Amino acid sequence: MLNGKKIVVVMPSYNAALTLARTVEEVPRDIVDEILLVDDASSDATVERANALGLTVFVHEKNFGYGRNQKTCYREALRHGADIVVMVHPDYQYSPSLIVPMAGMIAYGEYDVVIGSRILGKGALEGGMPLYKYVANRFLTLFQNILLGFKLSEYHTGFRAFRREVLEALPLNENSDGVVFDNQMLAQVVHFGFRVGEISTPTRYFAEASSINFSRSVRYGLGVLATSLQFRLHRMKLIRSRIFRLRGQKLISNYYKEIEAGTVGEDRG
After folding, report:
1. Could you tell me the pTM of the whole model?
2. Other CB atoms within 10 Å distance of the CB of residue 210
3. If you count DSSP H runs as helices and E runs as strands, how many of each does the chain have, helices first?
């Protein structure tokens, strides 16, 4: 806990067996109350490694995609009583030690959402981010800042912290089950007026770290452009986008199960 707030770390996982232990080892357990891992039908030993590390594990019945994985993460974190939820990828690309300042910025009432930015400072390129991804990141971020009327150093990081009330309010189930979920979620955060803070975070690109390929990067970029246009047109009342309506569908569950103590638990759907 931090300032009386229960902190739950969530890890959306797919084939993360090789990097999971290193990531978990650096999670500051003096303030983190629980770690939840959601496995998106991995073909490696991610679930077994997570069980061995004592994590709370949920397994999708099939591979639904990165966005659906996060939906499960947030639903279960709320069900487990989290006041602050921190998402960190289990591929050791980000530094879990920074959970402390990120959670603190929320626990002490300064922000509702905090993102770990690879762009602030010199983390991205020095950490090995491919040049084409860096250039695309800067272009897409500029485009979004203009259309959203906001200012962030990037919208594409996988290291984020949220106050409970944010996750309860956002119509997250209206978002994509794919990689553009991340971007849609931040656009919703801006649209509904939540306070967003940033912290500089180093990043590591190496063989075992997850990274979407070029074709998926292109699809993601197109999704980002579409999300930004939806935001602007919705604000101008030219369209009514479901992802920007508070009455949109909140988190639901009937497609995964919990794994406990090395055995398959009861279906929680």
Report:
1. 0.90
2. 17
3. 9, 9
User: Nearest 5°: phi and psi at 259?
Assistant: -110, 125
CA distances from 218 to 67, 76, 224, 228 (A): 17, 31, 10, 16
Read out DSSP for 59-79? Answer: EESS---HHHHHHHHHHHHHH
Tokens encoding 170: 């956002």
Hey, what are 48's tokens? 């077994």
If you search the block for the tokens 């797919």, which residue do you land on?
14
Scan for tokens 């400072």, then name that residue: 121
DSSP string, 142-158: HHHHHHHT---S-S--S
Instruction: Please state which of the four CATH numbers 3.30.60.50, 3.90.550.10, 1.20.1440.230, 3.30.450.20 is assigned to the domain occupying 7-267.
Output: 3.90.550.10
Q: Rg of the chain over CA atoms, in angstroms?
A: 17
> Residue 44 carries which DSSP code?
S
Contact 148, 190 (CB under 8 A): yes
Residue 32's nearest CA partner among 57, 7, 3 is 7
What's the pLDDT score for residue 190? 98
CB atoms within 10 A of CB 248: 16
Q: Is residue 19 within 8 Å of 91, Cβ to Cβ?
A: yes
Reported as a single tens digit per residue, the pLDDT across 205-258 is 765 555 566 777 888 999 999 999 999 999 999 999 999 998 877 776 678 888
